[in-house]
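// run 5 | inverse folding | seed 20
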């Protein structure tokens, strides 16, 4: 457990450093938000602001790998999977399932909330920004989302679970604690949003344990975030600072079905393909 505090400090310093660098660039370019903007914004441009946030979160990857290698005295690749590396072939197969399934889930959520409460739902009115702006947004955000997602998975489903598991000799206390911290890290929004995050995180922790690596959950998490930012960009809603913690009850209802559906399917798929679950 000696690596816990140093790694958290490195993550905090890294996030602060990226944020300060972004603020400095915004000041030099005179691109800071006006006074009426939210206090947590760095740039007036929502694309630039979101890009800095994603880049700051990505700091978790090198911080965890450094802590495992030099403080944990074990290969850094053991955070990725039991084989000591990220299994790219398995990751791509998981993505082939995750993206269409997540597209269906998000599509059902949009349709459900729009039909149920067309005036007061969380679905914004369409304000298409134009094709050049949309293409630029997708190019930038889709390049950053995988690193932001991987950082969250390396911290919450990989490093923390393994760190606690080395002490109690079971993955489940680590899965529970990390899942709770994962939900809290998104902020305190709606009760339905907190329940959704905690429920999803528990299933994802189970899937990591069943497949022996982070690949399946990284694929699903990337699919979720990539499609979510694409929808926000297409609707002109990149400035919306709501997170999954603000998800409505309809999102939780769909997650109750789709989270175990994906996890059980991928666990069975991994078993059929003899994906390693334990260190050779």
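// decoded
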């Amino acid at each position: 457990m000696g690596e816990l505090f140093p790694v958290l400090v490195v993550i905090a310093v890294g996030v602060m450093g990226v944020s300060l660098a972004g603020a400095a660039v915004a000041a030099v370019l005179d691109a800071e938000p006006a006074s009426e903007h939210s206090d947590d914004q760095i740039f007036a441009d929502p694309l630039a602001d979101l890009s800095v946030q994603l880049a700051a979160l990505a700091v978790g990857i090198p911080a965890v790998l450094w802590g495992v290698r030099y403080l944990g005295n074990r290969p850094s690749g053991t955070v990725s999977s039991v084989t000591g590396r990220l299994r790219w072939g398995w990751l791509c197969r998981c993505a082939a399932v995750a993206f269409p399934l997540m597209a269906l889930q998000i599509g059902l959520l949009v349709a459900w909330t729009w039909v149920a409460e067309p005036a007061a739902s969380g679905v914004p009115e369409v304000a298409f920004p134009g094709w050049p702006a949309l293409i630029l947004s997708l190019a930038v955000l889709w390049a950053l989302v995988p690193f932001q997602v991987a950082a969250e998975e390396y911290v919450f489903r990989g490093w923390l679970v393994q760190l606690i598991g080395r002490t109690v000799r079971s993955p489940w206390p680590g899965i529970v604690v990390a899942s709770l911290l994962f939900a809290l890290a998104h902020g305190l929004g709606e009760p339905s949003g907190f329940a959704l995050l905690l429920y999803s995180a528990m299933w994802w922790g189970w899937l990591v344990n069943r497949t022996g690596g982070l690949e399946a959950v990284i694929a699903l998490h990337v699919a979720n975030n990539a499609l979510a930012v694409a929808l926000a960009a297409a609707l002109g809603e990149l400035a919306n600072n709501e997170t999954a913690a603000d998800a409505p009850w309809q999102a939780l209802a769909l997650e109750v079905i789709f989270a175990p559906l994906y996890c059980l399917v991928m666990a069975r798929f991994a078993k059929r393909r003899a994906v390693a679950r334990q260190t050779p």
